[in-house]
Amino acid sequence: MSSTRRPRTLTAALVTAAALGAVVACGSPGVAAPDRVPVASSSSAPAPVDPTGTTAMGTQRTITRDGHDVAFYVTAGSGAVIVLDAGGGEDASYWNALVPVLAQQTGATVVTYDRTGSGRSSDVPGAFSAAAAADDLAAGLQGLGLVREPVVLVSHSLAGEVATYLVDDHPGLVQGAVLVDANVPQFFTPQETARLVAATDEQAAQVRAAPQTRQTRQALAVADGFGPAHTAYHALTWPSDLPVAVIVSERTPMPAGSPDAEAWRAAQQHFADAAPDRTLVTARDSSHDVALDRPDVVEQQIGDVLAQVRSQVR
To answer: What 8-state DSSP symbol labels residue 55?
Structure first.
């Protein structure tokens, strides 16, 4: 199946926080009926199905946390768990081409999921919270019994923020990580955050004035409170002993030649240099969608981190 890109209009300003506009679907295999696993005392209505989305690879299992549903897709394996977390505006189907390759190459269990507001997960009103998304992911991995083996987290774009809160708020849950052109705390300096907020104000106002779709509501949820949220995010750090591969795209998500693009590259390097067990790799001939343009780079780094993690737990 060929991968299909989803057009973005707030890409630079929101650091690919959400996809706006038309969503072009491509076919993929179906999934089994969901197996509901409640992990909180509250219940919720059935999760909505995004009519424009593509069915994700794997067996669907749904957890309930804090009154909303989160859909997970599990391709069974053994020895380790690889968790793929897509960027803003994408659901689990973003990884469809990579899931069977990783399952075959590594033998590990491969997991994707839909964050709230996308795919088959519930919509949650209010501003997007990366910390709450991290809690959802942790609840799913724990509730589905997926933390009995080492976990390698693979996070693209906005999911880098979710990853940061996950490793900070749920220590020991993840044993290794691959950041794929991901949002890292070092990028969101006060100056850069102010630039991004100013750049998106007019676009966000135009989106709010137009008829709303699920995708635009998700984008606006990220825009709401963007400044304070990223001021707080800038202060966060990662555990220094966690193996991390940092992949940066050659073209970056920012306009070519702009100060933002240079700041993006510098932040990725700064993050990689902040601890001894981190490596930086540039995906040549790649846009921000590294997993679509250079899946070989992503596969290689996942394999390397997984091998390192497996050697440490023997």
So the answer is: P
pLDDT tens, residue by residue, 9-34: 344 334 433 333 222 222 222 223 33
The Cα 75–Cα 264 span in angstroms is 33
Amino acid code (one letter) for 209: A
Q: For 82-91, what is each residue's pLDDT tens digit?
A: 999 999 989 9
| Residue 141 backbone dihedrals phi, psi, to 5 degrees | -65, -40
Question: Are the C-beta atoms of residues 245 and 305 closer than 8 Å to each other?
Answer: yes
CATH superfamily, domain at 35-313? Alpha/Beta hydrolase fold, catalytic domain (3.40.50.1820)
- Torsion-angle region of 172 (φ positive above 0: left; ψ -120 to 50: alpha; else: beta): left
Compute CA 64 distance to the chain's CA centroid, rounded to the nearest angstrom: 19
Instruction: Kindly give the pairing relationship between strand 68-75 and strand 59-65.
Output: antiparallel
| CA–centroid distance for 74 within its chain | 16
3-state DSSP assignment of residue 59: strand
Q: At a CB cut-off of 8 Å and minimum separation 6, what does 95 contact? A: 56, 57, 84, 86, 112, 291
Encoded tokens for 170: 């749920």
In the chain, domain spans: 35-313
Q: Which long-range contacts (CB under 8 A, 24 or more apart) does 27-32 make?
A: 27/1, 27/54, 28/1, 28/54, 28/55, 28/56, 28/57, 28/93, 28/96, 29/55, 29/57, 30/55, 31/55, 31/56, 31/57, 31/58, 31/59, 31/60, 31/73, 32/59, 32/60
User: Do 72 and 113 meet the contact criterion of CB atoms below 8 Å apart?
Assistant: yes
Q: Where do runs of H (alpha helix) occur along 40-94?
A: none
Q: Taking a C-beta distance cutoff of 8 angstroms, is the pair 112, 57 a contact?
A: yes
Indicate the pTM of the whole model.
0.87
Q: Give the pair of three-digit tokens for residue 256.
A: 């070519």
